[in-house]
């Protein structure tokens, strides 16, 4: 600070000048201060120029290494978790409305898939994977869809209620249950010897190769009436590789006992030849 200077000049008024305080020259040290351009602390301390705030998860501001911060909405079943990390499949937290499960592993065929969805299971009412059917709670051993989600079929050994009469699990058509899952009957197309059927063409038409009662229809008929009034009988019938038919039995001649009688027919019933044999006593041919 400079002192007051007074200057008196004859004939002039007194001029007073006063010097006001001024900044010291740059680079001049003063107590407790430094040159403002030097970048050093003006108060002589070593405090940092900037102060870093510690991130606070939950304040609604994404700070530091936070991936998200939804404030009070942070939750372990929300898009932003309570640790301010974004929800993702595999983090072990089930994200509501987005994930069905989250087991935090890479095993895809366990109870929680790698897409964080619960794999379908037999009985959930939805046909998935290799399931043939799935009626949910209606799956039943005797139902259309069985408990293992396979469709009921004739031959599976289970009687499908309302559809099958029987099901013995085999394809033997001469037992108590045919491969149609019904008891044997004439007209089912299967010849059941145990049911005294000679044929079964699956229809009730008469006059074809098999009658409606499952007896064979004759291709031709021939009647033989011997010379005597006794009863002539056939005891054997055979066919050769050409389809010819040979019959053998007995016939009677007036005043004599039984004679052997043999006749051969062609495939259409035409008589090819007839032979008889007469012995001292009764002679009879058997097939």
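Q: What amino acid sequence fits the structure above?
A:
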């Amino acid at each position: 600070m400079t002192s007051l200077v007074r200057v008196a000049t004859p004939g002039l008024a007194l001029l007073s000048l006063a010097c006001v305080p001024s900044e010291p020259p740059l680079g001049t040290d003063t107590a407790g201060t430094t040159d403002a351009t030097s970048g050093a602390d003006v108060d002589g301390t070593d405090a940092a120029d900037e102060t870093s705030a510690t991130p606070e998860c939950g304040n609604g501001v994404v700070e530091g290494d936070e991936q998200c911060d939804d404030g009070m909405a942070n939750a372990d079943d929300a898009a932003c978790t309570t640790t301010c990390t974004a929800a993702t499949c595999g983090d072990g937290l089930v994200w509501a409305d987005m994930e069905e499960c989250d087991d935090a592993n890479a095993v895809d065929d366990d109870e929680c898939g790698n897409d964080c969805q619960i794999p379908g299971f037999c009985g959930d009412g939805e046909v998935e994977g290799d399931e043939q059917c799935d009626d949910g709670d209606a799956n039943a051993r005797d139902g259309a869809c069985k408990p293992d989600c396979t469709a009921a079929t004739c031959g599976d050994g289970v009687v499908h209620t309302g559809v099958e009469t029987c099901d013995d699990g085999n394809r033997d058509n001469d037992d108590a249950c045919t491969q149609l899952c019904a008891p044997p009957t004439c007209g089912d197309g299967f010849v059941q010897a145990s049911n005294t059927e000679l044929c079964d063409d699956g229809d009730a038409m008469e006059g074809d190769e098999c009658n409606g009662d499952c007896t064979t229809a004759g291709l031709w008929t021939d009647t033989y009436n011997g010379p005597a009034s006794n009863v002539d009988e056939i005891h054997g019938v055979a066919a050769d590789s050409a389809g010819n038919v040979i019959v053998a039995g007995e016939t009677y001649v007036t005043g004599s006992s039984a004679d052997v009688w043999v006749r051969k027919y062609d495939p259409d019933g035409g008589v090819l030849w007839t032979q008889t044999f007469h012995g001292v006593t009764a002679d009879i041919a058997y097939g």
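Q: And what stands out in the fold?
A: Residues 7-18, 30-40, 47-51 have pLDDT under 50 and may be disordered.
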